[in-house]
Design brief:
Keywords: ATP-binding, Endoplasmic reticulum, Glycoprotein, Nucleotide-binding, Signal. Belongs to the ClpA/ClpB family. Torsin subfamily. GO terms for molecular function: ATP binding; ATP hydrolysis activity; identical protein binding. Helix 1 runs antiparallel to helix 3 and helix 10 packs across helix 11. The two termini are about 35 Å apart. The longest helix is centred in the middle third of the chain and has 18 residues. The protein has two domains: about 210 residues, P-loop containing nucleotide triphosphate hydrolases (Rossmann fold), CATH 3.40.50.300; about 55 residues. The protein is of the alpha/beta class.
């Protein structure tokens, strides 16, 4: 049996891409493509579920819910030859818990070009929508961008980072693209994937996990049903979130709220070992301990969760080598 090789992306270098380019540049010569994935092959869309699951199992630490939910939703969506709506996922959790890592893996294992694919589009409020006074222009540009790229390729991936920083109202222009209508503005959009990422709900997720720990419940016993309501309420209560008073929330257009749990000491240790392996180095107890000793944990009494998850592991390792 062939050995599956899983890619491993450094935690600190996942968001380095982006810049809007013209929709025309996203055009692709479909006749030149060769594909063995049958009806699912469009543009440079090349789903590799085995590779994705392997990578998630090896490198996404402490996230049993996110891993299972993302894989299940993605498989069901991609294997449906005629989905009635796009796949829309909203990733929530504390910083450094793996949200950006997962979005990067989706691009890597769904598209031949990964994050560099002309059909993967990554938006950051700071980069693409920096001026609140230009909201109306941003709305027009975003709608045009999404519509144009879906016209070029229905199998497109749209990533929206830092939803906590996105001006409320902007994302509403996407509402017609996210629902169950068959055609919007003359564009076939049903095979697209939209991923929204934010820290909102992280504090509430942390509290649920902390209470489970205090009750001596295993982390893996925590269920999605415990977290969905608190995440949803956190979004609805946050006037700075992109979904504030949004029809997207009111009309339940999100297919799943994906929770990322806070990371504990042994999870950070796992990240350190992964990063050393990526550097081609053998495990070194003194480096692992130095990173752990330099990491801040909370709450103050329990010292249970890493304040930055695994976000700063790569830079800390470099310092202690």
């Amino acid at each position: 049996m062939a050995t599956v090789r899983c890619g491993c992306w450094p935690w600190g270098s996942l968001l380095g891409l982006l810049g809007l380019v013209s929709a025309a540049a996203a055009a692709w010569d479909l006749t030149s493509l060769r594909c063995n994935f049958g009806a699912f092959c469009e543009c440079d869309f090349r789903p590799d579920f085995q590779g994705l699951e392997c990578d998630l199992a090896q490198h996404l630490v402490g996230q049993h819910l996110a891993r299972a939910l993302v894989v299940k939703a993605l498989k069901a969506f991609v294997q449906d030859p005629a989905p009635t709506k796009p796949l829309v996922l909203s990733l929530h959790g504390w910083t450094g818990t793996g949200k950006s890592y997962v979005s990067s893996l989706l691009a890597h294992y769904l598209f031949r070009g990964g994050l560099r694919s002309p059909h993967v589009h990554h938006f950051s409020p700071v980069i693409h929508f920096p001026h609140p006074g230009h909201l109306e222009r941003y709305k027009k540009d975003l709608k045009s961008w999404v519509q144009g790229n879906l016209t070029a390729c229905s199998r497109s991936l749209f990533l929206f980072d830092e939803m906590d920083e996105l001006a409320p109202g902007l994302i509403e222009v996407l509402r017609p693209f996210l629902g169950p209508s068959w055609v919007v503005y003359g564009t076939n959009y049903r095979k697209a994937i939209f991923i929204f990422i934010s820290n909102t709900g992280g504090a509430q997720i942390n509290q649920v996990v902390l209470e489970a720990w205090r009750s001596r419940r295993e982390r893996e016993e925590i269920r999605l049903q415990e977290l969905e309501p608190v995440i949803s309420q956190a979004v609805l209560d946050n006037p700075n979130h992109g979904f504030w008073r949004s029809g997207i929330m009111e009309e339940h257009l999100l297919d799943a709220l994906v929770p990322f749990l806070p990371l504990q000491r042994h999870h950070v240790q796992h990240c350190v070992l992964n990063e050393l392996a990526q550097l081609g180095l053998e495990p070194r107890d003194e480096v692992v301990q130095a990173v752990l000793d330099s990491t801040t944990f909370f709450p103050e009494d329990e010292q249970l969760f890493s304040s930055n998850g695994c976000k700063t592991v790569a830079s800390r390792i470099t310092f202690f080598l």
